[in-house]
Hints:
ABC transporter transmembrane region fold; Rossmann fold; 63% helix
Amino acid sequence: MIGDLKAVIGWLPARERWRWFVLVPVAGLAALIEAVGALAVFGLLRLVVDPELVRTTPVVSRLSAMWPSGDPRALVALLALGVGIFYVLRAAFLSWAEWLRQGTVYRSSAVAAERLFARYLAADYLFHAKRRSASLIEPMTRASDIAYELVAGSAVNIFAEAVIILALSVVLLVSAPPITLITVAIVLGLVLIPIVMSRRSWERIGESERELYQQQLHLLNQSIGAIKDVKITGRQPFFEQRFRQVKRELGATKQRRASAATLARLGVEATLILSMLLVVFLVMRQDTSGVATVSVLALFAYTGFRVVPSANRIMLNVGYMREAHPWISKMDDDMRRLRVPAARPYEHDRPLMQSSLTCESVSFGYEGGPPLALDNISFTIERGQSVGIVGPTGAGKSTLVDVLLGLLQPTTGRVLIDGEPLEGRERAWQRQIGYVAQDVYLLDDSLRRNIAFGIPDGGIDEARLAAAVTQARLDEVIAALPRGLETIVGENGIRLSGGQRQRVAIARALYHDPPVLFFDEATAALDSQTEREVTEAIAHLRQGSHLRQGFGGPAGGQAARGTRTIIAIAHRLSTVKHCDQLIYLRDGKLAGLGTQQQLMSDAGFRQLT
Ligand SMILES: Nc1ncnc2c1ncn2[C@@H]1O[C@H](COP(=O)(O)OP(=O)(O)OP(=O)(O)O)[C@@H](O)[C@H]1O
Ligand SMILES: [Mg+2]
C-alpha cells in the first residue's frame, strides 16, 4: 500500500508532485473545519435550549466573563451569528479544497497517462509485437485514474480522517480520560479488524476488475476490427455471448465491491452502538450525578457519530488502496521498464548511406533465440541501387526489412551503414527513409493529413504534397473525389479501395522525398494495370525528386542529386524485374543473391514467377 503510494507519486515529475504535498495540509484543515462545524452546531443547540449554560460551557464561559452584565440570550444570538458566518466561510473553503483535490487527482492522472503514452510510443517495435493493444490502453484509460483516485486520493482521505479522530480523541481525553481510552480502543479495533480481515478480498476484487476490463477492451477491439469477417461468417452470437459474459462478470465484481463496502459500514455501526451501550453502562455505574452523565453521554454520542463515519471512511479507503494494487503494480512495471530515450540531436551534418547498407551475418528470432526468422544473412546494397527481396510467404522478408529499418535489433550480427553500425543511429536513419508497410494503416482523417502524416495543417508543404500525389499515381483518384484531398478516408481507409489505400501509403512515404525507400509488397493489392503503373513509378522514383534542394540538411540533397535507393519486397517477379539485385530468402536463410538471370538457375526461385 505504501509502496503503491510511493510508486504513483513517483510517476509524476517534481513540478507536479508538490500539488500532493499542498493537498495534505488542506485536507487536514478541511477535516478539522468539518469537525468544528458540527461541534459548533451541537453546542449552539444546547445553548439555545438553555442560555444559562453560557456561564458553564467551556470556551463560551470565557466570552461571557468578558461581558458579565450582558443578557445570556444576546450572547447566544451573537454566537448563532458567528456560527452562521463560520458556515458560509466553511462552505467556501470546503468547495475550494474539493476543487483543488479533484484538480490534483485528474491532472496527475493525465500527466501519468501522458508519460506512459510517450513510453509506449518510444518502446521497441518488438514490445508492441508482443503486447495486445488492450493491455496498453487499460493503463492509460483506467489505471492512471485509479492510481490517483484510489491510491493517492485515498491516502489523503485517510490522513484527513485520522486528523478528525485524533482531534476528537483529544477533546474527549480532556473531558473524560478513562472512558476515552476505552472508546479509542474500541474504535481502533473497529477499524483494524476489518482492515486486516478484508485484505485479500479487496485485492481479489481489484484483480478481477482489471482482468475483466482488459478483456472487454480486447473483445471490442477484435469484434469491431473484424466486422467484415464477423458478418460474413455470421458469428455475431459468438461475440455477443462473450461480451455478455464479460459485462455480467464485471457487473458482479462491482456488486461485490459495493457490498464489501456496505457490509463493513453496517458492521462497524452495529458494533459501535453496542459499545456505546457499554459506555452508558460504565458511566452509570461510576457516577451517580445525572447531569454529568447526560453531558458526557451527549459528548460521546456526538463524537461517536462523528468518529464512526471517519473510521468507516478510513476502512473503505484502505480497501480502495488494496483494490488498486493489481492495476498499479502492472502500470508501475511498464513505467519502470520503459524509458523515454533522451532526445538525441539528429546528425544533420552527416547524411547516412553515402555508400552502402550492409547486413553482416544477421540472425533474428522473435523470442530472442530459435526458431530463427532470419538466419545468418549477409549482403550489401550500394547507394542508388534498386533491390528486390523475394521469397515464399513466411520466408522472413518483412522481418528483414524491419531489421534494416532499425525497428528490430538483430539477435546476432550487425547492420552497417557506410561501414558503421546502425545501432544507436536508428532515428537519424529512419528520418531518411520512406516506408510502405505490408498492411497499410490509414488515419480516419482527410487524404491530405494521411499523406502529410503527423504534420500540423499549417506545416504542410503543398508542392511536396502534389509531387507525392503524382508520383504515387493518385492524381486521377483524387480528381474523381468531390472533396479531393479533403476527403475523409474512414477508419483505416475503409472508404477507399485496397489499391487506393496502397497508393495513399506510397504518397505518404514519398512526401518527405526520402533518399531511401522501402516497399513491403506495396503493389500486392493493385490490379495489374495499376501495378504496372506503380512499378514504373517506383522505377522512376530512383531518379529522386528535383523539388527540393537541400531540405532537411544534406540528407535531402542525396535524393535531389538523383540517386535514390529502393528496397522492395515482392511476391511476383514481374514487379522486381527492373531491380539491380535480388535478395532471395527461403525459411529465413539467404537462398540466393544476384540478378533475376543469375537466380533463374534455382528451381525454387523459378517457381516464384
Ligand atoms: N511478431 C511476430 N512474433 C513472432 N513471430 C513472428 C512475428 N512476425 C513474424 N513472425 C514469424 O517470422 C517468420 C517470418 O515472417 P515474415 O513476416 O518476415 O515473413 P514474410 O516473408 O514477410 O511473409 P509474407 O510474404 O507472407 O509477408 C514467420 O514464420 C512468422 O511466423
Ligand atoms: Mg511480409
